[in-house]
């Protein structure tokens, strides 16, 4: 089963930015005023290229065959049998052949999120003689226990580790790791650079 993980907050804010840029580009084109409009377009283009590279594009994709790490300008296809270890700090780090490490851009865990997860994992203080806590169903209780003390990055790291261990149990052969450039992000960057050059030259 294919699963895609990314920063939901960054993804939503990026699309809000894209909508803002689309409105402003339309306004600048309909009310074109020469160099000032070109400069404004160049600024919007440069910021949009940055937003696309760091907020819209990054994703961690778990497919049946491999882990796909989409970072700003590169995509890494890492077959499950090639995964040797997974560690989680502020990011998910996937270790594979020759002591190489794939650092996934998303999801990441901040110090604040980790502290919140640790508080969530701690037992609730009991006050007074009578307890008024709601009774959880078995499914809800299992979910609470599964996420106790864990961030989203920890959860994704566990998913990667489980799929890699499953591939090893099936004795799958380690296929070659492929790293490709992100031509879409490069194209967006080239357009932004072209707008900046045009704003300077014209």
UniProtKB/TrEMBL annotation:
**What are the transmembrane regions?**
9-26, 38-56, 179-201
Q: Region Disordered: what ranges?
A: 115-136
| Keyword Transmembrane among UniProt keywords | yes
Q: Give UniProt keywords alphabetically.
A: Membrane, Transmembrane, Transmembrane helix
Ranges for domain Low molecular weight protein antigen 6 PH: 57-92
State the superkingdom. Answer: Bacteria
Instruction: One Pfam family, please name it.
Output: bPH_6
Quote the protein name from its UniProt record. Answer: PH domain-containing protein
Record lineage: Bacteria, Bacillati, Actinomycetota, Actinomycetes, Streptosporangiales
């Amino acid at each position: 089963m294919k699963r895609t993980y990314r920063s939901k907050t960054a993804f939503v804010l990026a699309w809000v930015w894209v909508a803002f840029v689309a409105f402003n580009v339309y306004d600048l084109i309909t009310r074109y005023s020469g160099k000032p409009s070109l400069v404004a377009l160049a600024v919007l283009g440069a910021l949009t290229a940055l937003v696309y590279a760091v907020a819209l594009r990054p994703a961690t994709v778990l497919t049946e065959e491999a882990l796909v790490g989409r970072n700003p300008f590169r995509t890494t296809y890492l077959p499950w049998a090639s995964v040797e270890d997974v560690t989680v700090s502020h990011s998910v780090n996937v270790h594979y052949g020759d002591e190489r490490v794939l650092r996934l851009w998303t999801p990441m865990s901040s110090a604040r999120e980790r502290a919140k997860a640790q508080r969530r994992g701690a037992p609730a203080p009991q006050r007074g003689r009578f307890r008024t806590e709601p009774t959880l169903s078995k499914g809800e209780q299992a979910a609470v226990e599964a996420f106790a003390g864990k961030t989203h990055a920890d959860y994704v790291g566990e998913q990667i580790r489980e799929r890699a261990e499953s591939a090893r149990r099936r004795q799958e052969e380690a296929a070659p790791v492929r790293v490709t450039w992100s031509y879409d992000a490069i194209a967006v960057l080239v357009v932004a650079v072209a707008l900046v050059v045009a704003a300077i030259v014209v």
